[in-house]
Amino acid sequence: MRTNAKALTGVIMLVVFVLLAVIGPWIAPFDPSMRSNALLQPPSSMHWFGTTHLGQDIFSQVLAGTRSVVFVGAVAGVVATVLSVLVGITAGYLSGTASEGLSALSNVFLVIPALPLIIIITSSLPETSNLTIALVIGLTSWAWNARVLRAQTLSLRRRDYVEAARANGESTWRIILFEILPNLYAVIASGFVGTVLFAVISEITLAFIGVSDAGGWNWGTVLYWAQSQQALAQGAWWWFVPAGLAIALLGTSLSLVNFGIDEYVNPRLRTRFSMRGVRMRVGFTPVLAKETS
Amino acid sequence: MSYLLKRLAFYLLTAWAAVTINFFVPRMIPGDPVQALITKQRGQMTSEAVRSLYVLFGLDKNESLASQYFSYLGQLLRGDLGMSFTFFPSPVSDVISDGLPWTVGLVGITTVIGFLLGTAAGAVVGWRRGTWADSLIPVTTFVSSIPYFWLGLVAIAVLTGPGSFFPASGAYEIGLVPNWDWQFIGSTVQHGLLPGFTILVSSVSGWILSMRNMMVTVSSDDYVTVAHAKGLPERRVMLAYAARNALLPNVSGFALALGFIVGGTLLVEIVFSYPGLGLQLFQAVGAKDYPLLQGIFLVITLSVLLANLLADVAYLALDPRTRREA
């Protein structure tokens, strides 16, 4: 079997991040909020990523912040995925007003700009914690996956094997759970990964504008302090570069996993290695195209 | 025509949903934010302004929820979004109309350029699958995972500073009065280049990826093979056959992605202190200026709906099927 190098790289990177989320706060060399006399120091052997204007260790802040980022991403991803499966499959399998209504609901949520919506909700909440932020993000970002799942379900429910199951007198629930759902696993997984990425970026963005878990650290709060203390004007590049790179690496690992899933679902997207170096006219392989479609 | 009417009805539904969300969200705010403001301003507020804020926050306990809702709708229809707490005593509508042109100019121009550039690049990369062009994919993946605002921070750190051509903040030279002379326009362009470029770099990679995937899918379709077999020039097959059809999902994707892009670009404004809605949103969050927050949310949503309508018109022009069904 051909291993998918892209997806494997993504999974390995992801495992490292999850591991850091679990042990990060314990292996951090310093308390991330602890002040010291080493004010605004560039990276050194003592402080790997330098220090803040209060002498806090940025390496520890980034390490400790991983937990909140992974937590919010995972919780929001699970909430949004469960909602999108419920809404998407129901809207796709049923017909008539209920289906139209659910589909209109997901389209409304798709068109309303998510980030401003998340901002007004979280800043009006009595208290913001990682959990409430994750829930708000999860409850507002299920619509895209619901739409994809609805389209897939629509195309599955008229297939012969589903018709056969229906003719056999299987209950609707059994058909949905055992005939339709297994064919949607890849789509659901890819939707989950995409939502986690969106949730992570949203959480960091929220923290960057000052809406975050009180007292906790995440990569966005690091950037918030860097911005509000004029790190740029003081030339303190070490203050915002590590957190940004961490975001980009986590994002890349999620995208790589998603590429793997996409190529699994749609074999046409796979790069054919035999084509490397030879400039061939795309589409001149009718026999192969027959096989894959 | 019925296609457009259907879309229009959907946008009206969405606008109503946004208004309704806006009605219910402030009812979660603990305490009495209006009282806090009145105390702060020590009686400088007119009773009419106080009344409109109470309608906005639903603190008028004597009214039922339904009648609160209708007085809220009536207030919105008159264009009354309440008083801004931070820019007191300016009404929210005045504050927003100061910021809106800057945001529409910056975001509008860069989003359209980003879409066109990304789609063109994606078409080429998708057509040349399996060649050097594929090595662009990991790069674009990495870039599209970076939050817009962080890229802006890096751009400021690297490209601005004493003696640099690029200013680090603002939308025009301090001291200039906004008008239509060349000095002001030049200064505006100079200030807009860096934030615009940041948005462009972040948004373009998404379009490249989606167009590339559509191109790859389309280019193994039978009609493309037939076009090749007829001996049509490569360029013509790529542009008039493959790209023409791969473009359609990208255009409908444009409408859906707009909400995400707008969210990201608001943050770029914050980083560059660009005086648009994003910066105002930032100030409103910091000062707990709820009326301004809600007003900005409403205006952004309505603008996105309008842009979606325009994208629909473009789709109508590109896809003859939607016209025939009508």
Automatic annotation (TrEMBL), chain A:
Entry's transmembrane regions: 7-28, 69-93, 105-125, 131-149, 184-209, 237-261
What is the protein's membrane topology class? Multi-pass membrane protein
Q: Where in the cell is it found?
A: Cell membrane
Q: Which InterPro entries match?
A: BP-dependent_transpt_permease, MetI-like, MetI-like_sf, OppC_N
Protein name stated in the entry:
Peptide ABC transporter permease
- First-listed, main subcellular location of the protein, grouped into a coarse class: membrane
Q: What's the domain of life for this entry?
A: Bacteria
* Keyword check for Transcription: no
Q: Which organism is it from?
A: Lentzea pudingi
Q: Does the keyword Cell membrane apply?
A: yes
From TrEMBL, chain B:
Does the keyword field hold Transmembrane helix? yes
Out of the domains of life, which is the source?
Bacteria
Q: Does the keyword Calcium apply?
A: no
* Location(s) in or outside the cell: Cell membrane; Membrane
Question: Topology in the membrane?
Answer: Multi-pass membrane protein
Transmembrane ranges, per UniProt, are 7-25, 102-127, 148-172, 192-210, 246-272, 292-318
Q: Which InterPro entries does the entry mention?
A: MetI-like, MetI-like_sf
Which Pfam families is this protein grouped with? BPD_transp_1
Record keywords: Membrane, Transmembrane, Transmembrane helix, Transport
Where is coiled-coil annotated? Answer: none
- Annotated ABC transmembrane type-1 domain ranges read 100-311
Q: CDD domains per the record? A: TM_PBP2
- Its main subcellular localisation, reduced to a broad class, is membrane
Q: Which PANTHER family does the UniProt entry name for this protein?
A: OLIGOPEPTIDE TRANSPORT SYSTEM PERMEASE PROTEIN (PTHR43376)
Q: Which family does it belong to?
A: Belongs to the binding-protein-dependent transport system permease family.
**UniProt protein name:** Peptide ABC transporter permease
